[in-house]
Design brief:
- One of its GO terms (molecular function) is enzyme regulator activity.
- Belongs to the cytochrome c oxidase subunit 6A family.
- InterPro entries: Cyt_c_oxidase_su6a, Cyt_c_oxidase_su6a_sf.
- It is found in: Mitochondrion inner membrane.
- The chain has two helices and no strands.
- It is mainly alpha-helical.
- The longest helix is centred in the middle third of the chain and has 50 residues.
- It is flat and about 85 Å long.
- It starts with a helix and ends in a 37-residue tail after the last helix.
Length: 115
């Protein structure tokens, strides 16, 4: 194919249906406004559901779960759990290079009790 033939083929393709925007709509301004009005009713419904149902439920369950968690913490303070000693956790071939050599780098005395 010569350059002229390729150029003609390219110009034919450019003017064909291949270059038209297939996602554009023919909606007129009046039709768009009608769609907007119809959608605003649904938007108002969801706004009311959010304000009068979702937010109060979130507040209720946050208060309830906080109260339950405080009861759980209070119970653990009165009756602490006795940790089970697992001997395989104490195996060290050599001391660690920090602290006393027995505790891990991020040692927490509350959670790492069996060291």
């Amino acid at each position: 194919m010569s350059f002229a033939q390729v150029f003609r083929l390219g110009s034919r393709l450019a003017s064909s249906n291949l270059t038209k925007r297939s996602y554009s709509s023919n909606t007129t301004k009046e039709a768009f406004e009608a769609i907007k009005v119809e959608a605003s009713a649904g938007a108002e419904t969801w706004k009311k559901i959010t304000l009068f149902v979702t937010i109060p439920l979130c507040l209720f369950f946050s208060v309830k779960s906080t109260r339950d968690e405080f009861e759980h913490i209070h119970h653990l303070e009165e009756h602490p759990e006795t940790p089970v000693h697992y001997s395989y956790l104490d195996i060290h071939k050599k001391d660690l290079p920090w602290g006393d050599g027995q505790k891990p780098l991020f040692y927490n005395p509350i959670f790492d009790r069996n060291l």
